[in-house]
Each structure stands twice: as structure tokens, then as C-alpha cells.
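Final report, closing paragraph on structural work. Over the funding period we assembled a curated collection of sequence-structure pairs, and we close with a single example.
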Amino acid sequence: MNRRMPKSIPDLCCYPEDFGVADDQRLNISIHSMEEVINISETVIEFCMARGLDKLNSNRAGLCIEELAGNIVTHGFTGRKGESIDISVTKSPEDLIIKFKDNCPLFNPEELDAIFDPEDPAKNIGVRIVRNVCKEMEYHSLLGLNVLSITM
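Its predicted structure, as stored:
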């Protein structure tokens, strides 16, 4: 279709040029350590505000990314070489979509109910805040990777 050898997944899938959102509406970040997590929030807030998201929701996006990336590093990183989190922040006309992909040990989705146990409202407060500020939160295990999508 493109009359050339595919060089990316969108090329291989023959997505049209206007598929998805423009490149300037997407921010891609890779994290390899807790030091990188600490500095990510400000970058995300600036990205969101530059694309028309209000200050409150921009700050919420920064908080969500800092909280979840910190949890992944703290509980998922085991010290083996090559561990990373790839984060994609996409501003569509309707929503802000944040995707986390990591190569840590697979997360058991059944543990999700235990995280939100109503018996102890202070337990996992950061993840609870993220869940309360987003429209949708969805986890998948895909090709041995953890993939978490958040829609705000």
C-alpha cells in the first residue's frame, strides 16, 4: 500500500497518514529509575497545558503519572538489566489518554480488587486517587508486558 518496506507497526498495519492524533499531540517517555520518576510530573503538566488542558486536569495528569510510575518502579523493578516503563500521553480532542507499558513481572489483575479494599480507605491512597480522577482505568497483559491505560 505504501510502496515501501514497513519500518514501524503503523506502516505494517497500513494505517492511513491521518490515523490517530498528530505527533505534536503525543508525549512519549521512558523511565528506568526512581530519579526519572521524580522529574516527570513537570514535563507532563507543561505538555498538557500547552495543548489546552486546564491547570487542574494538567496537574492531575502529572500526579497520576508520578504515582503510578513510582509504584511500578518500587514494586515491579527487580534489579535486572533493561527494566523500563514506557509512558505515552496522548491529547485527543475529547480526552487525555495515558498508557503505561512495563517489562516487570506480570501483575495479577485479581490483585486489583485487594488494592481497592473498602476495609482500609488509607491503603494504596495514591492509586485510589488516580482511580478517582480518571474516567477509565484498564489493565492488560500483552505479549508478556503489563499495559495500563488511563482515560481522563
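The chain has five helices and five strands. The chain has one domain: 23-151. We thank the funder for supporting this effort.
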